[in-house]
Amino acid sequence: MKEPKPWVKPALELGPLLLFFAVFMWKRGETVTLWGQDYTALVFATLVFIPVLAVATLIQWKLTGKLAPMQIATLVLVVVFGGLSVWLNDPRFFKMKPTIIYLLFGVVLGYSLLAGKEWLRLVLGEALPMDAEGWRKLTLRMTLLFFALAVANELVWRFMSETTWVYFKTFGMPVVLFVFLMANAGLYKAHALEKTDEGAE
Hints:
Layout: H1 8-27, E1 32-34, E2 37-39, H2 41-64, H3 69-88, H4 92-114, H5 119-124, H6 132-159, H7 162-183, H8 185-190, H9 193-197
Antiparallel strand pairs: 1-2
Helix pairs in contact: 1-2, 1-7, 2-3, 3-4, 4-6, 6-7
Protein backbone atom coordinates (compact mmCIF):
# COMPACT_ATOMS: atom_id res chain seq x y z
CA MET A 1 0.00 0.00 0.00
CA LYS A 2 1.39 3.39 -1.02
CA GLU A 3 2.18 5.63 1.93
CA PRO A 4 0.11 8.86 1.82
CA LYS A 5 1.85 12.23 1.77
CA PRO A 6 2.85 13.56 5.24
CA TRP A 7 0.22 16.31 5.22
CA VAL A 8 -2.71 14.00 4.48
CA LYS A 9 -3.07 12.44 7.95
CA PRO A 10 -3.03 15.78 9.88
CA ALA A 11 -5.45 17.26 7.33
CA LEU A 12 -7.91 14.38 7.76
CA GLU A 13 -7.67 14.54 11.56
CA LEU A 14 -7.83 18.32 12.00
CA GLY A 15 -9.96 19.24 8.97
CA PRO A 16 -13.35 18.16 10.40
CA LEU A 17 -12.67 19.95 13.70
CA LEU A 18 -11.66 23.17 11.94
CA LEU A 19 -14.74 22.93 9.74
CA PHE A 20 -16.88 22.53 12.85
CA PHE A 21 -15.31 25.70 14.28
CA ALA A 22 -15.79 27.63 11.02
CA VAL A 23 -19.46 26.66 10.71
CA PHE A 24 -20.13 27.58 14.32
CA MET A 25 -18.47 30.99 13.97
CA TRP A 26 -20.31 31.58 10.67
CA LYS A 27 -23.74 30.94 12.21
CA ARG A 28 -23.02 32.09 15.77
CA GLY A 29 -25.96 33.95 17.24
CA GLU A 30 -28.27 32.86 14.42
CA THR A 31 -30.96 30.22 14.08
CA VAL A 32 -30.67 27.73 11.26
CA THR A 33 -33.93 26.21 9.99
CA LEU A 34 -33.78 22.77 8.40
CA TRP A 35 -36.71 20.47 7.63
CA GLY A 36 -39.01 22.77 9.62
CA GLN A 37 -36.81 22.60 12.72
CA ASP A 38 -34.84 25.50 14.21
CA TYR A 39 -31.27 24.74 15.29
CA THR A 40 -28.69 26.81 17.16
CA ALA A 41 -25.29 27.41 15.57
CA LEU A 42 -23.70 24.71 17.75
CA VAL A 43 -26.23 22.03 16.87
CA PHE A 44 -26.01 22.94 13.18
CA ALA A 45 -22.20 22.79 13.31
CA THR A 46 -22.50 19.38 14.99
CA LEU A 47 -24.83 18.21 12.21
CA VAL A 48 -22.14 19.15 9.67
CA PHE A 49 -19.29 17.74 11.76
CA ILE A 50 -20.62 14.18 12.18
CA PRO A 51 -20.66 13.05 8.51
CA VAL A 52 -17.46 14.97 7.69
CA LEU A 53 -15.61 13.21 10.52
CA ALA A 54 -17.01 9.85 9.41
CA VAL A 55 -15.86 10.40 5.82
CA ALA A 56 -12.42 11.65 6.91
CA THR A 57 -11.97 8.61 9.16
CA LEU A 58 -13.03 6.27 6.34
CA ILE A 59 -10.58 7.93 3.93
CA GLN A 60 -7.75 7.57 6.44
CA TRP A 61 -8.58 3.89 6.92
CA LYS A 62 -8.63 3.38 3.15
CA LEU A 63 -5.27 5.13 2.74
CA THR A 64 -3.40 3.55 5.65
CA GLY A 65 -5.29 0.31 6.25
CA LYS A 66 -5.51 0.98 9.98
CA LEU A 67 -7.06 3.25 12.61
CA ALA A 68 -5.91 4.00 16.15
CA PRO A 69 -8.25 2.87 18.97
CA MET A 70 -8.60 6.53 19.96
CA GLN A 71 -9.89 7.41 16.48
CA ILE A 72 -12.46 4.62 16.53
CA ALA A 73 -13.69 5.51 20.03
CA THR A 74 -13.88 9.20 19.11
CA LEU A 75 -15.90 8.51 15.97
CA VAL A 76 -18.36 6.26 17.83
CA LEU A 77 -18.90 8.79 20.61
CA VAL A 78 -19.23 11.68 18.15
CA VAL A 79 -21.91 9.78 16.25
CA VAL A 80 -23.74 8.80 19.45
CA PHE A 81 -23.58 12.05 21.41
CA GLY A 82 -23.54 14.35 18.39
CA GLY A 83 -26.49 12.41 16.99
CA LEU A 84 -28.38 12.83 20.26
CA SER A 85 -27.71 16.57 20.21
CA VAL A 86 -29.11 16.86 16.68
CA TRP A 87 -32.02 14.47 17.23
CA LEU A 88 -33.11 16.06 20.52
CA ASN A 89 -31.95 19.54 19.43
CA ASP A 90 -29.97 19.81 22.66
CA PRO A 91 -26.27 20.81 22.45
CA ARG A 92 -25.52 19.51 25.96
CA PHE A 93 -24.98 15.96 24.72
CA PHE A 94 -22.27 17.07 22.30
CA LYS A 95 -20.67 19.24 24.97
CA MET A 96 -20.46 16.23 27.28
CA LYS A 97 -18.81 14.09 24.59
CA PRO A 98 -15.20 15.17 25.35
CA THR A 99 -15.82 14.44 29.03
CA ILE A 100 -16.93 10.89 28.21
CA ILE A 101 -14.01 10.36 25.82
CA TYR A 102 -11.38 11.53 28.30
CA LEU A 103 -12.94 9.60 31.18
CA LEU A 104 -12.97 6.48 29.01
CA PHE A 105 -9.31 6.88 28.05
CA GLY A 106 -8.37 7.66 31.65
CA VAL A 107 -10.15 4.56 32.97
CA VAL A 108 -8.65 2.31 30.28
CA LEU A 109 -5.11 3.57 30.90
CA GLY A 110 -5.61 3.47 34.67
CA TYR A 111 -6.73 -0.15 34.46
CA SER A 112 -3.81 -1.06 32.21
CA LEU A 113 -1.45 0.47 34.77
CA LEU A 114 -2.98 -1.47 37.68
CA ALA A 115 -3.10 -4.69 35.66
CA GLY A 116 0.50 -4.36 34.51
CA LYS A 117 -0.48 -4.13 30.86
CA GLU A 118 1.31 -1.98 28.30
CA TRP A 119 -1.63 -0.94 26.15
CA LEU A 120 -0.19 2.53 25.55
CA ARG A 121 2.90 0.90 24.02
CA LEU A 122 0.64 -0.88 21.51
CA VAL A 123 -0.60 2.52 20.30
CA LEU A 124 2.58 4.62 20.49
CA GLY A 125 5.33 2.02 20.55
CA GLU A 126 6.52 2.62 16.98
CA ALA A 127 6.86 6.37 17.53
CA LEU A 128 8.30 6.16 21.06
CA PRO A 129 10.51 3.11 21.63
CA MET A 130 10.95 3.02 25.42
CA ASP A 131 11.58 0.49 28.17
CA ALA A 132 8.83 -0.83 30.46
CA GLU A 133 9.50 1.75 33.19
CA GLY A 134 9.17 4.57 30.69
CA TRP A 135 5.79 3.28 29.53
CA ARG A 136 4.64 2.90 33.13
CA LYS A 137 5.49 6.52 33.92
CA LEU A 138 3.96 7.85 30.69
CA THR A 139 0.78 5.80 31.25
CA LEU A 140 0.38 7.26 34.74
CA ARG A 141 0.91 10.80 33.49
CA MET A 142 -1.53 10.38 30.59
CA THR A 143 -4.12 8.86 32.90
CA LEU A 144 -3.96 11.93 35.14
CA LEU A 145 -4.02 14.21 32.09
CA PHE A 146 -7.17 12.62 30.68
CA PHE A 147 -8.98 12.87 34.01
CA ALA A 148 -7.92 16.53 34.29
CA LEU A 149 -9.18 17.25 30.76
CA ALA A 150 -12.52 15.62 31.60
CA VAL A 151 -12.91 17.88 34.62
CA ALA A 152 -11.80 20.93 32.61
CA ASN A 153 -14.36 20.22 29.89
CA GLU A 154 -17.15 19.99 32.46
CA LEU A 155 -16.14 23.28 34.06
CA VAL A 156 -15.86 25.12 30.74
CA TRP A 157 -19.15 24.02 29.19
CA ARG A 158 -21.17 24.36 32.39
CA PHE A 159 -19.84 27.70 33.64
CA MET A 160 -18.60 29.57 30.56
CA SER A 161 -20.13 30.76 27.32
CA GLU A 162 -20.82 28.47 24.40
CA THR A 163 -18.29 30.33 22.27
CA THR A 164 -15.63 29.88 24.94
CA TRP A 165 -16.32 26.14 24.97
CA VAL A 166 -16.00 25.92 21.18
CA TYR A 167 -12.62 27.69 21.34
CA PHE A 168 -11.57 25.35 24.16
CA LYS A 169 -12.63 22.24 22.24
CA THR A 170 -11.13 23.33 18.92
CA PHE A 171 -7.84 24.82 20.08
CA GLY A 172 -7.44 24.43 23.85
CA MET A 173 -7.55 20.64 24.10
CA PRO A 174 -5.22 19.94 21.14
CA VAL A 175 -2.72 22.51 22.47
CA VAL A 176 -2.79 20.94 25.94
CA LEU A 177 -2.13 17.48 24.46
CA PHE A 178 0.69 18.83 22.27
CA VAL A 179 2.34 20.66 25.19
CA PHE A 180 2.00 17.53 27.33
CA LEU A 181 3.76 15.37 24.75
CA MET A 182 6.54 17.94 24.32
CA ALA A 183 6.93 18.37 28.09
CA ASN A 184 7.68 14.67 28.43
CA ALA A 185 10.67 14.80 26.09
CA GLY A 186 12.97 14.12 29.03
CA LEU A 187 11.08 10.93 29.82
CA TYR A 188 11.35 9.69 26.25
CA LYS A 189 15.08 10.36 26.25
CA ALA A 190 15.79 8.83 29.66
CA HIS A 191 13.97 5.58 28.85
CA ALA A 192 14.77 5.25 25.14
CA LEU A 193 15.53 1.65 24.15
CA GLU A 194 18.76 2.74 22.45
CA LYS A 195 20.11 3.96 25.78
CA THR A 196 18.97 0.80 27.51
CA ASP A 197 20.78 -1.31 24.93
CA GLU A 198 23.97 0.66 25.60
CA GLY A 199 23.68 -0.01 29.32
CA ALA A 200 22.51 3.49 30.22
CA GLU A 201 19.96 4.01 32.93
